[in-house]
Amino acid sequence: MDPATIGPAPxxxxxxxxxxxxxxxxxxxxxxxxxxxxxxxAPAVSWGFYIGGYQPAQKWLKDRKGRALSxxxxxxxxxxxxxxxxxxxxxxxxxxxxxxx
Length: 101
What we know:
By secondary structure, the chain is an alpha+beta fold. The protein has helices at residues 3-6, 44-48, 56-62, 71-93; strands at residues 13-14, 25-27, 30-32, 38-39. The chain has one domain (3-81). The chain contains 4 helices and 4 strands. The mean pLDDT is 94.
């Protein structure tokens, strides 16, 4: 999760409030953490991306329910969104052919 490797994560954290995670949800390109605060311009693919049986973008926030996000938490979550989006983009470029034996 090295910021220099990941590059900019253009998902600004917006809204007024205490940054406490309540009921995370994705709506209209925004990842809402409570009624008034959200990560803007978030890719839908990041929110719905599965790794194994988990959706990391959702699980990370749900694991912090009732807790205020720190500045470092916000930066970390922005990087999570970016990494999941880039992972999906790279996966779309992979092609495989399966040959019958």
